[in-house]
Design goal:
- With 144 residues, this protein is an all-beta fold.
- It is 0% helix and 51% strand.
- It has no helices and 12 strands.
- The chain has a 4-stranded antiparallel β-sheet, with no helix packed on it.
- A hairpin with a 2-residue loop joins β1 and β2.
- The protein starts with a strand and ends with a strand.
- The relative contact order is 0.20.
Length: 144
């Protein structure tokens, strides 16, 4: 059970528990600088549930990418989510997410392949997040 895990940061000679949240099968924490961090399991600890306050689609990372990239997004409410990749002509290349999802911090990986499993060409692509109450598009670059 991931609920007992928390991220701790080392600062001023001691370990401090940071606000941690679950993102799929990962335990995450937002940090503002490089440092020393560790993952600690405490079955008696209560998991901090950090739900996003607003919808957000973040810039993919890495960008430019080859052969894969990660796309993160925040959902403040449960609902149907579609995240798709489009080419420069506006043609849909790949649907990454098309399902009901609970509120939370989410991420998905695109492997640079289309719906048929074929590698796409180098170039500029767009990814669009759509929910009932939110729509946002960002640009990414695939370099081979």
């Amino acid at each position: 059970d991931l609920a007992g895990f928390s991220v701790y940061g080392y600062e001023d000679g001691k370990w401090n528990r940071m606000e941690s949240y679950l993102d799929g099968n990962s335990v995450c924490s937002k940090v503002k600088e490089l440092g020393i961090y560790r993952l600690v399991y405490d079955p008696t600890a209560k998991q901090t549930t950090s739900l996003p306050k607003a919808y957000e689609l973040f810039q993919n990372s890495p960008n430019p990418f080859n052969p894969e990239t990660h796309i993160k997004y925040d959902l403040p409410a449960t609902g149907h989510v579609e995240l798709a990749v489009y080419n420069i002509l506006g043609q849909r290349v790949k649907v990454l997410v098309n399902e009901e999802q609970e509120a939370g911090h989410r991420s998905v990986t695109w492997d640079g392949k289309d719906e048929l499993g074929k590698e796409v060409a180098s170039g500029i692509y767009f990814y669009k997040l759509q929910t009932e109450n939110f729509e946002k598009t960002k640009k990414m670059v695939l370099l081979k």
